[in-house]
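Reviewers asked in the last cycle whether our approach scales beyond single polypeptides. To address this, we selected a multi-component target totalling 229 residues and predicted its structure end to end. The input consisted of the following lines:
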Amino acid sequence: AQSVAQPEDQVNVAEGNPLTVKCTYSVSGNPYLFWYVQYPNRGLQFLLKYITGDNLVKGSYGFEAEFNKSQSSFHLKKPSALVSDSALYFCAVRAIWMDSSYKLIFGSGTRLLVRP
Amino acid sequence: DGGITQSPKYLFRKEGQNVTLSCEQNLNHDAMYWYRQDPGQGLRLIYYSQIVNDFQKGDIAEGYSVSREKKESFPLTVTSAQKNPTAFYLCASSAGGLHTEAFFGQGTRLTVV
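The resulting structure, written as structure tokens, was:
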């Protein structure tokens, strides 16, 4: 089955330390991968995407993500976390599904808590 | 301002009532999506539309209906057949290609009273 998995419900990190939020996917064909962030009672905001090319993608607010085809992963990273980065993060994938549609499917989300 | 607008922000429904959530975009996007988000959980796809006058069921379409008569509008009706409608509903749009990111509205919080 085609899916996206975020294995961690919550990630805790101290301000100034590097952070990683994990995402793995399972799709047939080439995946198009996205990261979004959600603040309380708000919609999702786009952070970055992988289409093709360089496996390290840079996005908004200092975030970056590394695409690893052999591990089917697209982990979100930031070298130095800020308290304001605390939010809910979603990984998503778009691919051509069996019915020839290209639905956008989301992972279950990972809550990031950055402590001062 | 270009963007995607959902209304109302808060909506209360009585048991047995149908309610319609509005979603409008002025981004000239072909594709539009409706997602449901339950507390502490991820997004589940209800319906999506890749082009005007066409839409497909997502993973949890039962108890919901949509229409796509205009490119800029994709209203969602929560019918009385939806047994547990209390949730946060998010509408999104994208330019339609595989590589394009989606833009989200601010959401509608629906509560059954």
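Chain B touches chain A at residues 6, 33, 35, 41-43, 45, 48, 50, 56, 58, 88, 90, 92, 94, 98-99, 101-107, 109 (CB under 8 Å). We regard this as preliminary and will revisit it once experimental data from Aim 1 are available.
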